[in-house]
Design a protein that fits this description.
The complex is a heterotrimer of chains A (about 325), B (about 280) and C (about 280). Chain A contains 13 helices and two strands; from the N terminus they run H-H-H-E-E-H-H-H-H-H-H-H-H-H-H. With about 325 residues, chain A is an all-alpha fold. Chain A has two domains: about 45 residues; about 260 residues, MetI-like fold. Chain A has a two-stranded antiparallel sheet with strand order 1-2. In chain A, strand 1 and strand 2 form a beta hairpin. Chain B has about 280 residues and is an alpha/beta fold. Chain B has eleven helices and ten strands. Chain B has a six-stranded mixed β-sheet with strand order 6-7-8-3-9-10, with helices on both faces. Chain B has a four-stranded antiparallel β-sheet with strand order 2-1-4-5. The chains are: A mainly alpha (about 325), B alpha/beta (about 280), C mainly alpha (about 280). Chains A and B meet through helix 1 of A and helix 1 and strand 4 of B.
Amino acid sequence: MASLPITVERAGLQRRALNFLCRLRGGDEVAHLITLLAAASILLVTLLLVYELYGNSSLPRQKFGWAFLAGRTWDPVKENFGALPFIYGTVVSSALGLLIAVPLGVGAAIFLAELAPPRISNALTFVIELLAAVPSVIYGLLGIFVLVPLLRTVVQPFLKTTLGFLPLFQGPMFGVGMLAGGVVLAIMIIPFIISISREVLLAVPVEQREAALAVGATRWEATWRVVVPFARAGILASVFLALARALGETMAVTMVIGNDPRISASLFAPGYSIAAVIANEFAEATSDMHLQVLIELGLVLFFLTIVINGLARLVILSTTGRGTAH
Amino acid sequence: MTATSNAVTVLKATEESPSLGRGATPRAQLDFKLRVAGLNFYYGAKQALYDIGLQILVHRITALIGPSGCGKTTFLRTLNRMYETVPRARAEGAVLLDDEDVLAMDVVSLRRRVGMVFQKSNPFPKSIFDNVAYGLKVNGTRRKGALAEAVERSLRRAALWDEVKGQLHKSAYALSGGQQQRLCIARALAVDPEVLLLDEPCSALDPIATAKIEELLFDLKETCTIIIVTHNMQQAARVANDTGFFLLGRLIEFNRTEMIFKTPARRETEDYITGRFG
Amino acid sequence: MGARETWRKFVNVFMFSLTGLCAFTAVGFLFFILGYLLWNGGRALNWAFLTHLPTPVGEAGGGMANAIVGSAKLLLLASLVGIPPGFLGGVYLGEFGGKTFSFLVRYTTDLLNGVPSIVVGIFAYTIVVLPLRHFSTLAGGLALGVMMIPIAVRSTEESLRTVPQTLREGALALGASKWKTVATVVVPAAGRGIVTGFVLDLARVAGETAPLLFTAFSNRFWSPGWNQPTASLPVMVFTYAISPYEDWHRQAWAAGLVLLLLVLVTNIAARLLVSGRMSVPQV
């Protein structure tokens, strides 16, 4: 064998250095850097957001501390503020919204996933998902002029006469109030529940359904007792995600909830949500304390949604191990 | 590890590796296009190629055969460093293209000189013209005239010109599977590579399309050095001058094609050829 | 035995009918919303509405031309603020990303996505309105832009993911550097999905009201430049709807209709475009 005239001198490390220089010259490292900086800017913005929220709410945090969350007064003149009515309103209206939306949404998802033929299912889902695109203020508009009169003249009297013994359905009937807020939220979050639940149900393996049918179950029994439980983690996740959205919803709720910072047992009573009070009072806050209290409320809302979203993510993560498709 | 850095070691490895064996006339060194010695390849901690050594002669078609997972495609992809897209892959050893260290040179110029055609045709979602011209544009050619000439030349070399000459502006996806693969060959040829690597280029094609491509390979080898990985032994027997047999990450035997198929030196080669495993 | 069978069959039909009712109710909501707005808004929508400024409070007539222009300016600014980091960040995650940093970026992007729009408004307020001491289009554009970022990132990354790896390899094998491959092959191949994502993103923020309430605020006149408060369609809908004036209610419907049509048409067009044909056929 004739000998090789050249020497292969470069060791592994030298090769890597050479390759790096070539990449640098070719522009790859610059491109990597630019995109990395863009990604880092997102981190920066988020950190800045939290920082600004926290920093600009120092007055009330110092004055009220944790008691802020339990306070019930809202007096801008005397600068006495408490967050409880708003937390209460946010939670109750969202809970009511879920109470209405979940059965309706899961029911619709079951229909779309189990019963409807694929083309109809896709077409209907397409339409339902458009609901998610409707701006909040439009829901509010219809809320004021359609829902509230309807509640005031038809629904609330009906509830009062049939279920009036419950403290939930007592008191004057204005139309605006917690019930209106809950209903409007329900309509707004339904598309999320339907969309996700439907996907999760569709992903349940055919074998599960077939196994149930093979032992003589009716279609409904197979669906309700086998398919839905199999998909329940995904459905639960969709509920959490819908809840997170409901908590942050501003305009529609502001326009129908009545804007009264009180805690009342009745769903007919007006209430207030965190987002609604910020929307109504921020631009005309009377003092620095007032403004910073509203910012602190924003911080509270922020943490609430983070926690709920985090729970949703945990639920999703716990399912991917189990094989429940999502 | 040591083979990477030492000329003497490279020499030794070359002398010990399978090379053109019995019956071959001695070749002058200048006829070697690619020389590989002591090549080891790793995916992370897992070794995929063990001490590969061979010489590829210029203006010939070399086929690499072997069962699935034997490393022939891994080996092919070290020749133009396509493994660099995989995060923890690394190659160690000597790979020389005309006396230049492949593993240290600028990868962009390497890939101009060593082109590749993939198993499944992968034309870009652009027009036929833009597909073929892509390599040239990326490497700096801008003049419309030069591009048009090069596109025509490459399409002729790929035996596709007559079929598409009036429709260069059409999407590449309008072509049939066989035509798309020939388009990919034209695209690779446009930058005038010295070596063309083909990774099972006909595996997704029907016999007629396959025959067309095999025919054009014969013409191409006049101007190019061709290395083709193939699952199809008949194809290797038909087109290749030299054949290498890979098994479990090692190069078992490397010789003139007729020697490999008629009188294999190793039992493993014979078992594979005769179909005892596949 | 027979009675139980019959009962189960009855339950079967009943429950499924119920679910069907749920589905059609949900669908019905959309048609009701659209229909009601078409009816009420259509009657109030006229040329004057689109081209005139609002009249003094209490006077009938006038239009929302300044709100339409204001919304357009806000959306332009939002695109400038939100799309570049969103797009480049998505490219980073899809093409360049390292493992831990990518995880961090994705997590933070999801976090930002979950922030209620009014809180983003507060952020823009503290960053722009407080230092400048007045409301401005700039502040509103910033708020909307920040809201656009997470979805821009996600849609870019997911669109890039649909591009088959073999396309990248084809370009690399021809001697294209990585960034050239991304810029000249991968991004164009994913182009349709990316653009659609941005358009949907824009349509979403076009309807946002809350973050504008104390950033861009409102304006009964034209808002020249970027440094003054500006009217916008969603805020006008809100303001007019909660007012005591009949004529303003009428205009709120018209504005609502314009907004809704804008958003729905964009959504329908974008979804049909993406589901219809893809840039790279899945061979």
